[in-house]
Amino acid sequence: MQHLRRYREIVFVFIKYGFGAIIDNIGILKHINVRRKILKQTNDENIAKLSRGERLRLALEELGPTFIKMGQILSTRPDILPKDLIKELEKLQDKVPAFSFDEVKSVIQNEFGESLEEAYAEFEPTPLAAASIAQVHMAKLWSGKTVVVKVQRPGIEKIIAQDMRILEDIAKFVDNRTKYGKLYNFTKMVEDFKKRLEEELDFRIEGENAEKFKKNFLKDKKVKIPSILWTHTTRRVLTMEYIDGIPLNDFNAIDEAGLDRGAIARNLAKSVLNQILRDGFFHGDPHPGNIMVLGDGTIAFLDFGMVGSLSPERKRQFSKMLLGIVYKNSRMITESIIDLNAVTLNVNMKKLEKDINNLRNRYVEIPLEKLKVGEVLNGVFDLVFSYNIVIPNEFNMLAKSLITLEGIVEKLNPKISVLEVAKPIAKQLIPKMFSTQHMKEEIINATMDYSRLIKELPSFLLNFLRKTEEENYAVELKIRDFESLEKRVDKVFNRLSTSIILLALSIVIAGILIGSGMSANAGAEMYKLNVIILKIGLAIAFVIVLGLAISIFRSGRL
C-alpha cells in the first residue's frame, strides 16, 4: 500500500505499450485496485505499429533508471527472453536531461564537507554527458591536473530503493502464484539485480574496479586505464584522470589522425580476451562510448560501473569452451558444460554431445578468420537452454561482451576475426591446464573434499543408524522408468500366456478330431457324440480366447 501510486504507474505504462494482457494474466490488477476495463482504454495507433521489442524498450525507458538497468541485464538472458526482444533491449538509452549546477554543488558539499570552489580550482557547469544515475563534468584540481567528475543524481538512491521493493514484491507474487515461478526463480534474479545496482550506486566500488584493471594492464603499454583521485572520491562523487582521445565509433577522426584501424581492432580484441582468459575480470559493457583511442593507437577504457568477474574455476570452464570452439571440438565443449555443475540427472549427455556435434558441423567448413564467436556461443547457449541447463550469469555477461567486441572489431576492420586473435591466447591456456600448479590446486581441493567427507561420515552414519531404529522408517528403492519396464514385462507374459492357452486348446481339439476319426466306424450314435463334444470344445476355446483378448486390451498391455 505504501507504494501503490508507483505500482499503478508501472502497470499503466506497460498497458500503454500493449502489455496489458500479460499484466492481467499474472493477476496483479485486482491486487492494486485497477479495473480490467482500463486495458481497453489504450489504443494509440503509433504505438500499435511498433514491434513488441520496441514497445518493451520504450516502456522501460519511460519507467526510469531501475527499469533501464533491468532491461540492460535482461538483454544478457537469452534463456528468459526471445532474440527479438534481446536485440531491442540492447538499444536501451540511459540519457535524460541534466540536473542543475546548484544540485551538483549541493552533492559535492554534502560529500566533501567543503564547497565546490574549495574542492576544485575549476569546474565546468555544463556536463559532458548526463544519464539517469549520474552526470559527468570537466574540472581541474588545485594541483593543475585536469579531471572528469562523476556526480550522482540527487534522490536517485531513494527512487531505486522504492522500485526495488516493488520488483521484489512482484517477483515473490509471480513465483508463488503463477506457472512462471516454477520455471524461473524471479526472487533470486531480483536479489542479484539489487546487489548489482547497489554496487553501481557506490562510486567507490567503480574506483576500485578501475584500480584493478590498471593493475592487471600495468605491463601492457597499449592499454590505458585512467587513475582515480581518491582524495576527491566518495560514495556519490567519483573523480578520475581526464583522457584526451578519440571515441572508438568516430571513424572519420580515427582516419584523419592517420591511425591503423586494423591495429586498433587487434589491440582491442586482445585486451578484452586477456581480461576474460588471463585475469578473469572483464569490462561488462565495452561499447564504443566507453572506449577511446589515443594518438599512438593505445586503447583507453572508461566507465567501470559494470564489470564481470570469473572465479578460477569458471575461468577454466570458459577457457575449455573457447578452446572447443577454436579447435571445433564438440567433446571439449560438452565437457565444459558438464563442468558447470548445472546439468540435471535427466539430461541425456549422449544426445547433448550429438546435438553439439551437429552444431559444430555447421561451422566446420568455415575458416576460423570468418567464424563469429558470438554466433557460435549463442548457438551453444540456445542448445543448452533447450536441455533446461542454466548457464551462470557471468557467462551471459561474458557472451554479451564478446558479441559487442565482435561488432566493434568488424566495423573497425571486417577482415579481422576475434577468434583468430583468440587462437594464440587459447594455445597458451593448454599448458596452464596441465601445469604442476594447476595439478597441485586440484590435489589440494580434492584432499580438502576427502577430509571433509571423512570428518562428516561418522555423524552421517550415526544419524542413519538412529533413523533405522524408528518404527516408521522405510527404505524405498526406485528403478528409473520402472513403469515402462513393468508394461514391457506384462506384454511379454500376456503374449506368452496367450500362446500357451492357444497351444493347449489346439492339442485338445486335435485330440478330439483324432478320436472322432478313429471312432468313425463305431456307429452313428458315437459319431454324433463326437461332433457334439467337438462343437462344445470349440465354443469353450472361443469364449476363453475372447475373454483373454478383452482382458489384455482393457489393460492396454498387449
TrEMBL record:
<dbReference type="Pfam" id="PF03109">
    <property type="entry name" value="ABC1"/>
</dbReference>
<dbReference type="InterPro" id="IPR011009">
    <property type="entry name" value="Kinase-like_dom_sf"/>
</dbReference>
<dbReference type="InterPro" id="IPR004147">
    <property type="entry name" value="ABC1_dom"/>
</dbReference>
<comment type="pathway">
    <text>Cofactor biosynthesis; ubiquinone biosynthesis [regulation].</text>
</comment>
<feature type="coiled-coil region">
    <location>
        <begin position="342"/>
        <end position="369"/>
    </location>
</feature>
<keyword id="KW-0812">Transmembrane</keyword>
<comment type="similarity">
    <text>Belongs to the protein kinase superfamily. ADCK protein kinase family.</text>
</comment>
<dbReference type="InterPro" id="IPR010232">
    <property type="entry name" value="UbiB"/>
</dbReference>
<keyword id="KW-1133">Transmembrane helix</keyword>
<feature type="transmembrane region" description="Helical">
    <location>
        <begin position="500"/>
        <end position="520"/>
    </location>
</feature>
<protein>
    <submittedName>
        <fullName>2-polyprenylphenol 6-hydroxylase</fullName>
    </submittedName>
</protein>
<keyword id="KW-1003">Cell membrane</keyword>
<dbReference type="GO" id="GO:0006744">
    <property type="term" value="P:ubiquinone biosynthetic process"/>
</dbReference>
<feature type="domain" description="ABC1 atypical kinase-like">
    <location>
        <begin position="91"/>
        <end position="336"/>
    </location>
</feature>
<feature type="transmembrane region" description="Helical">
    <location>
        <begin position="532"/>
        <end position="553"/>
    </location>
</feature>
<keyword id="KW-0831">Ubiquinone biosynthesis</keyword>
<keyword id="KW-0175">Coiled coil</keyword>
<keyword id="KW-0472">Membrane</keyword>
<keyword id="KW-0997">Cell inner membrane</keyword>
<dbReference type="InterPro" id="IPR050154">
    <property type="entry name" value="UbiB_kinase"/>
</dbReference>
